[in-house]
Amino acid sequence: MAIALRLSRGGAKRRPYYRIVAADSRSPRDGKYLEQIGTYNPMLAKDDPARVKLDEDRARYWLGVGAQPSDRVLRFLDAAGVKERAGRNNPKKGEPGEAAKERAEEKAAKAAEAEEAAKAAAEAPAVEEVVEEAPAAEAPAEETAAAEAPAEEAPAEEAKTGD
After folding, report:
1. At what angle do helices 71-80 and 56-64 cross, to 10 degrees?
2. pLDDT-derived band at 86, boundaries 50, 70, 90
3. What is the Cα–Cα distance from 16 to 22, expressed in whole angstroms?
4. Which end of the chain is less congested by CB atoms within 10 angstroms, N or C?
C-alpha cells in the first residue's frame, strides 16, 4: 500500500478548509484516511499562525515509513523544517504563448510602419517649405519690379502726350 500525505477538502462552497492527512494513495481525495496530521485554512491571512497547523512528529513518522507528500503538503513541510523541498526552475513561466507573440509582432510591425510614415511626413514638409520659401522670397522682388516698370512707363506716356 502506497501512502500519501495530502490535503482532504472540507468546508462549504467557496469556503474551503483542508485536513492534512496520511491516506492510501488509491483512496478518494475526501475519502477514508489513516490519520489526520494537521489542518490548512486558506481563508486566513498568510501571516496568521493558525493558517497551517501541522503535527511535525507524525509527519516525520509517515515520511519515515515511505509516505510521499503532495506538492502543497511538501511546501508546508518545508516551511515547518520537516523536509527540504527542491526549488523548481521553469524558464518558460513568464513567456507569452504563440498567439500573444504573433499579436506582439503585428503590433511592432504596425508601430514601425507608423514611425516610418511619421518620419517621411516630417521630412517631406521640410523640403516643401524650403521650396515654397524660395519662390515666395523671389515673388516680392518680381512684384516690386513689376510695380516699378509701369511707374516708369507712365511718365514717359505723359511726356509723349504733353508734346
Report:
1. 120
2. confident
3. 19
4. C
SS3 letters across the chain: CCEEEEEEEEEECCEEEEEEEEEECCCCCCCCCCEEEEEECCCCCCCCCCCEEECHHHHHHHHHCCCEECHHHHHHHHHHCCCCCCCCCCCCCCCCCHHHHHHHHHHHHHHHHHHHHHHHHHHHHHHHHHHHHHHHHHHHHHHHHHHHHHHHHHHHHHHHHHC
What are the CA-CA distances from residue 103 to residues 8, 30, 43, 107, 117 (Å)? 42, 44, 38, 6, 21
pLDDT tens digit sequence for 54-67: 999 999 999 999 99
Mean pLDDT of the chain: 82
Distance CA 6, CA 72 (A): 8
Q: What is the mean pLDDT of residues 42-65?
A: 94
Q: Quick check: 47 pLDDT over 90?
A: yes
End-to-end CA separation in angstroms for the chain: 140
Q: Cell 462552497 appears where? A: 13
| Residue 51 pLDDT class (50, 70, 90 cuts) | very high
Pairing relation of β-strands 15-24 and 35-40? antiparallel
